[in-house]
């Protein structure tokens, strides 16, 4: 191993982007992933992927490595949530200002683009290398490969090997790492709304479609081939509508006709897909520290969160951006110092987005269908238009800004308390346009001063 050769575990979105950053710093980089090379033997993601929503933090990280223009053709802007009620009527709730959008993107091609960019810059990517163990005492990593087990002695290890990280498991066995994992009661299943027979999108392509039904929901995100990737989120068991109770095509038809009839009419392959695609679990993982000597956990390996804010990838990309900034500032002679600074700086922010991701699930599956929620959003949008610096809606702070997640969270909580008081007025529906908006800002300023 050469001095300053970096080993990255995981060629997912975060491992690949980190490899690009490090190559651009002139470092030697080797990436190891347990999957086969997708270019040689297609490893199908089909049936178990949720489309992601690229937003400002993600774009900033891609732009810094010159990739924004290459990624744009894979992404479709969504300017708001299109809410479908049980009668098939829809309402658009904008995400932010008129030109602000989050971008639907699916994992496969995007991941490949990042891997290829890393290789173009000189990173060595080794597929079919599954990390089995990292021995910190002897500084040795063991991989399972088609040729048998292999051992390496890397100088620096970055574990971007996802929610079930082998680096993290090795840390847990050998050093004092706090760890918490929680499966939520819901699982998800991937479904599809294909393009129409004349090759068009079957619904508005520039929105994230939501069928909020209280304890469960269906969502749909557009793809460049004019299909939509849909994700059905249901409890596994224990409620009237849950995966456990959909046993045959008749049960499935009853659920879809009762709750998602407009979507049902656009899903010719529903019955096949539902019973063919796996039902996947949703997990939250928190751990700390993320560092052991010259080894660091990054992305989902450090903080896997439920997908409901659409921030998992954006947060992981921001991890890379911040780590890169520290490397630029502190140099590459003391990786343990760089990693230590990184974890201290970053942890409060990943805690905040982890929390917000859970809270956004309730908002998506339940609140968005409530006219009072829509009114609340309208009032907040007006406040933001009148007082752009004083009142920034939480969604805007998280999605369309680079403000630290922890700051956004704290500011969001103060705004939420003020808005709760505003919305408590029984005449708010009639009065909302005549509200004393300046007084609302004063209330916020007062609560900040306390
Ligand atoms: N839309 C989706 O369905 C998914 C989205 N994401 C998004 O990506 C974001 C960040 O993901 P990221 O942190 O890159 O994690 P990922 O899970 O995307 O990538 C980790 C990579 O490491 C591989 N890997 C796992 N274990 C080992 C091992 N022991 N040795 C070598 N390689 C291993 C994984 O293979 P394998 O996957 O086969 O385990 C995968 O290719 C998430 O927050 C989420 O937003 C991530 C996963 C799925
Ligand atoms: N990509 C996702 C995947 C699954 C669940 C939600 C998303 C979202 O992006 C949600 C979006 N940010 C929203 O708040 O409407």
Automatic annotation (TrEMBL):
<keyword id="KW-0503">Monooxygenase</keyword>
<keyword id="KW-0274">FAD</keyword>
<protein>
    <recommendedName>
        <fullName>Kynurenine 3-monooxygenase</fullName>
        <ecNumber>1.14.13.9</ecNumber>
    </recommendedName>
</protein>
<dbReference type="Pfam" id="PF01494">
    <property type="entry name" value="FAD_binding_3"/>
</dbReference>
<keyword id="KW-0521">NADP</keyword>
<keyword id="KW-0285">Flavoprotein</keyword>
<keyword id="KW-0662">Pyridine nucleotide biosynthesis</keyword>
<comment type="function">
    <text>Catalyzes the hydroxylation of L-kynurenine (L-Kyn) to form 3-hydroxy-L-kynurenine (L-3OHKyn). Required for synthesis of quinolinic acid.</text>
</comment>
<dbReference type="InterPro" id="IPR027545">
    <property type="entry name" value="Kynurenine_monooxygenase"/>
</dbReference>
<comment type="pathway">
    <text>Cofactor biosynthesis; NAD(+) biosynthesis; quinolinate from L-kynurenine: step 1/3.</text>
</comment>
<dbReference type="InterPro" id="IPR036188">
    <property type="entry name" value="FAD/NAD-bd_sf"/>
</dbReference>
<comment type="similarity">
    <text>Belongs to the aromatic-ring hydroxylase family. KMO subfamily.</text>
</comment>
<keyword id="KW-0560">Oxidoreductase</keyword>
<dbReference type="InterPro" id="IPR002938">
    <property type="entry name" value="FAD-bd"/>
</dbReference>
<feature type="domain" description="FAD-binding">
    <location>
        <begin position="5"/>
        <end position="354"/>
    </location>
</feature>
């Amino acid at each position: 191993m050469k001095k300053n050769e970096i080993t990255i575990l995981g060629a997912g979105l975060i491992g690949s982007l980190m490899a690009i950053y490090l190559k651009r710093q002139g470092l030697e980089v080797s990436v190891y992933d347990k999957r086969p090379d997708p270019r040689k033997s297609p490893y199908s993601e089909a049936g178990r992927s949720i489309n992601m929503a690229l937003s400002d933090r993600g774009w900033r990280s891609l732009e810094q490595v010159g990739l924004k223009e290459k990624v744009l053709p894979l992404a479709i802007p969504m300017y708001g949530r299109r809410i479908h009620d049980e009668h098939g009527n829809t309402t658009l709730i904008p995400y932010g200002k008129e030109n602000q959008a989050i971008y639907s993107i699916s994992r496969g091609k995007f991941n490949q683009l990042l891997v290829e960019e890393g290789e173009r810059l000189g990173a060595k990517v080794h597929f079919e290398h599954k990390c089995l163990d990292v021995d910190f005492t002897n500084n040795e990593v063991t991989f399972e490969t088609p040729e048998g087990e292999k051992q390496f002695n890397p100088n620096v290890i970055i574990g971007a090997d996802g929610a079930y990280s082998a680096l993290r498991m090795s840390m847990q066995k050998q050093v004092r790492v706090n760890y918490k994992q929680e499966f939520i009661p819901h699982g998800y299943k991937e479904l599809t709304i294909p393009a129409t027979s004349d090759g068009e999108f079957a619904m508005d392509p520039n929105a994230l479609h939501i069928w909020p039904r209280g304890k469960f929901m269906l969502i749909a995100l557009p793809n460049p081939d004019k299909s939509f990737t849909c994700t059905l989120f249901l409890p596994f068991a224990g409620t009237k509508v849950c995966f456990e109770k959909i046993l045959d095509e008749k049960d499935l038809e009853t659920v879809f006709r009762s709750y998602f009839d407009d979507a049902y009419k656009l899903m010719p392959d529903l019955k096949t897909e539902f019973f063919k695609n796996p039902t996947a679990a949703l997990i939250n993982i928190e751990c700390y520290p993320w560092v052991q000597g010259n080894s660091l956990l990054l992305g989902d390996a450090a903080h896997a969160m439920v997908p409901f804010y659409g921030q998992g990838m954006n947060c992981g990309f921001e991890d890379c951006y911040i780590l890169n900034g520290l490397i630029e500032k502190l140099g590459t002679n003391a990786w343990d110092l760089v990693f230590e600074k990184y974890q201290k700086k970053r942890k409060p922010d990943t805690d905040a987005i982890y929390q917000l991701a859970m809270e956004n699930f309730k908002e998506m599956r339940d609140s968005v269908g409530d006219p009072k929620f829509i009114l609340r959003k309208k009032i907040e949008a007006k406040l933001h238009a009148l007082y752009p610096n004083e009142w920034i809606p939480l969604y805007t702070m998280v999605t369309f800004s680079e403000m630290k997640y922890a700051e956004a969270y704290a500011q969001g909580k103060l705004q939420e308390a003020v808005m709760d008081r505003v919305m408590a007025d029984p005449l708010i529906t009639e009065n909302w346009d005549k509200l004393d908006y300046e007084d609302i800002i004063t209330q916020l300023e007062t609560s900040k001063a306390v």
